[in-house]
Structures are given as structure tokens and as C-alpha cells.
UniProtKB/TrEMBL annotation:
The keyword Transferase applies. This is Phosphoribosyltransferase. Coiled coil: none annotated. Residues 10-176 form the Phosphoribosyltransferase domain. The keyword Glycosyltransferase applies. It comes from the Bacteria. It comes from Aliigemmobacter aestuarii. GO terms for molecular function: glycosyltransferase activity. Keywords: Glycosyltransferase, Transferase. InterPro entries: PRTase-like, PRTase_dom.
Length: 221
């Protein structure tokens, strides 16, 4: 049985739990594309600004869905390597760094498309809440958290509707707090816990980022 109808429902439930915890001065940082429709619900509820964490998976040769590593852009790109997968694939660190260059180029393209020249939202001294639609192996999330930590938030929170318990345990050293609504012992695929887990198109990411801007511009009631 699916746990959530879609990312919107999952985001609403996650937003309610985040609101209950009362984090001070939050900033919502979404992993595109699937994390954005989840994160916008936290933006609506917490009245917080939203930015994107641009992360790309580096797949094994011939097995693109098998994550060897993940890379996040920035002045100092962060690379999180799955050492056991890299060894099995026979890839050296130099091989992985070379493969990362192509993904960094795609990150730059997507940031220009999604954010249309917007400046990064400052997170230093604030509560940075990193949101995705779910976590299986955690390679992309680990890279994202390391990159956000370098921006010196006062508190770093990982927030997802569903994740594997062992993955959350592995990621716990990277964050100050974890908010996860559903931790199935046998996760399988993240999409198995959603009735509708269709791909989030670029147009929806752009639309939701525009909405987040409008919500921030709206005077407080």
C-alpha cells in the first residue's frame, strides 16, 4: 500500500511536522526535481524562503542508476563517493573526478534554467532544512548536506517523507536533526511509497520557485 498519494500530500504532512518542531529562522533547501513539490509545502506553512541544492548522481559505467558518487556545485564542489560501488566498478578517484566534470556542467545549466539569475539565499546562522521526496542509498543527500554545512548554518536539518532507516543512521553524523515521517524496514524504491511518483518536469520546478518568491514578497498578515 502506498504511504502518500503524491509529493504534495507528502509535503503537507512533512510541513506540519516541521511546524510542530518550531525551528528558528528556517531556510528551505530543496533537491530538484522531485524535492521541490515536497519543499514548497514547507515554504507555504513556515513562510520561509526556498533555494535549491543542485546535486547530480554519478552513475556506474553501463549502470547509470547505480550511484558511484554524487556531486554538488558551489565555489568548492562537494563529491561524496560510494567506495564499495567504485571498487566494484574498477573506478579510481581520478576517474570519478573526470566523470564529475560533466555533471557540474549540467548543474550549471539547470541552475540557470530554474533560478533565472536569482542569488543564493543566505543560510549562515539560520536553520537550513534540506528536503527531498525520499532517500534510498543516500549518496546524493550526503553530498548535499556536506555542501550546505560548509555554508555555516546554525542548525542543519534533514527532512524527508520516507527513507531507509540504515541510510538515516549513516547520515545522522552529517546533521543536527532528522525529520522523517516513514522509515520502512524494507524500503525498496522510494517511488513504491507514493501512488503517483511521476517525474517532476522542469516547468514545475520553475513555477514553484516563482511561487516561493511571491510568497516571500507577500506582506505578513
Amino acid at each position: 500500500m502506498s504511504r502518500f498519494r503524491n509529493r504534495t500530500e507528502a509535503g503537507q504532512a512533512l510541513a506540519a511536522e516541521l511546524a510542530r518542531r518550531g525551528y528558528a529562522d528556517p531556510v528551505i533547501l530543496a533537491l530538484p526535481r522531485g524535492g521541490v513539490p515536497v519543499a514548497i509545502e514547507a515554504v507555504r506553512t513556515l513562510k520561509a524562503p526556498m533555494d535549491l541544492v543542485m546535486v547530480r548522481k554519478i552513475g556506474a559505467p553501463g549502470q547509470p542508476e547505480l550511484a558511484v558518487a554524487a556531486v554538488v556545485n558551489g565555489d568548492d564542489p562537494q563529491l561524496a563517493v560510494n567506495a564499495s560501488v567504485a571498487r566494484h566498478a574498477g573506478l579510481s578517484m581520478q576517474d570519478i573526478e573526470r566523470m564529475a566534470e560533466a555533471q557540474l556542467a549540467e548543474i550549471r545549466r539547470r541552475r540557470a534554467l530554474y533560478l533565472k539569475g536569482r542569488a543564493q539565499v543566505p543560510v549562515e546562522g539560520r536553520t537550513a532544512i534540506v528536503v527531498d521526496d525520499g532517500i534510498a542509498t543516500g549518496a546524493t543527500m550526503r553530498a548535499s548536506l556536506k555542501a550546505v554545512r560548509q555554508r555555516h548554518p546554525a542548525k542543519l536539518v534533514l527532512a524527508v517523507p520516507v527513507a531507509a532507516p540504515d541510510t538515516l543512521e549513516d547520515l545522522s553524523a552529517e546533521v543536527d536533526d532528522i525529520v522523517c515521517l516513514f522509515r520502512p524496514l524494507m524500503l525498496g524504491a522510494v517511488g513504491a511509497h507514493y501512488a503517483d511518483f511521476g517525474q517532476t518536469p522542469d516547468e514545475d520546478v520553475i513555477r514553484l520557485m516563482d511561487e516561493a518568491d511571491r510568497l516571500q514578497a507577500r506582506p505578513a498578515s
